Protein 1
Amino acid sequence: MTLRLAINGALGRMGRALGLLVLQEPGFEIAAALEAPGSPAAGQDYGTLLGRAPLSVAVSDSLKARVDALVDFSTPVASLARLEECVKTGSPAVICTTGFDEDQRRCLRSAADRIPVLVASNTSVGIAALLRHLPALARELGDRFDIEIIEMHHRRKKDAPSGTAVTVAEAIARETGRSFPADFTFGRRGAPGEKPPREIGVHAVRGGGVIGEHTVLFASEDEVIAVTHRAGSRDLFARGALRAAAFVASAKPGYYSMDAVLG
């Protein structure tokens, strides 16, 4: 069976990486390539824009027919517009965009009553595995260990902290009885005083072309544990997104994370 995919944000860095990967993967084909209204690429062949053979798939600004899965790497506003179209067409959705506010998150959950919606701030299988185990480590180490979260990305990243850092923070908060964001501080400056016992710091670093690096530090008076994940290429996220797309294509309506993809 061949899965027909739509890519939203098809000409962004991740959209291109995903498009090129799909062309190499048996079992997948590109059914729609979506960009913002007014895009200069509108109407052009997506395969040609990727530097490959024509696909007979023209870049458009909306999803007009059902696909087996839509994968979204765009912006919160564009993501929600495509999600509305997914509900109308009955298309499962993999939402990889970050930076949603609380109202927008409620829209994601509302759509999941009608279609499968998988929301992943990071589609790396390694990050998904870490999210399974890091919260338990935080609970086992207890309050003797301070916790700090540090993320680094390329200079062009628009939101901070990263969606992955927020996901890690929320997972640790749930497991350790903390509240997010009340028990967290985002960067420090001046003279903030001593670190409160249960405060977790979240720090964003931007520079160069760094694809993504996330570190969680556990520090006591005597020892430090550092857990780090580094992304070596965007293909890592594209491969994870394809796994997520294959999952939602056969899933029931509901709200999912990459943990469900791991099984």
Note: The chain has two domains: 3-123+234-262, 125-230.
Protein 2
Amino acid sequence: MVPSSFVMLDAFPLTPNGKIDRKALPAPTKVIVPAEATDHVAATNAIEETIADVWKSLLGVERVGLRDNIFDLGVNSLLTVQANQRLSALLDRKIALVAMFRYPTVEALAAHLTEGQASEDTASRRAQDRDARKKDAADRRRELRSAKR
């Protein structure tokens, strides 16, 4: 765990009792170092645009590139939870919070979600096929029973 910012002081401000005066400490300033204009890669599909828009709104920045690490841009765990809730609502699907930490770029998270969507579709198709096979087997059993009577 590394602090997101450091404040250099010549000496700590002290109270009359010799303790650190926390109220007199300067507030750290949030400095976001923008990537070079040539490094910016824009979103290429709807999922990437949605993810980038959520991060832009939460961070209050003009743009978030595909390969920008969100934690380098100043995201913390609380903002990640907010982004997770917004993305889940916008994409109309549950997104694992751990995925937000595991895939810290727009590009990586979009690839994970696209891959996850494909595996969900495959699982859904398998379940439908299994249900159809069960129904066919039940129909055959009924036909056999009625034929024996």
Note: The domain at 41-148 is CATH 1.10.1200.10 (Non-ribosomal Peptide Synthetase Peptidyl Carrier Protein; Chain A).
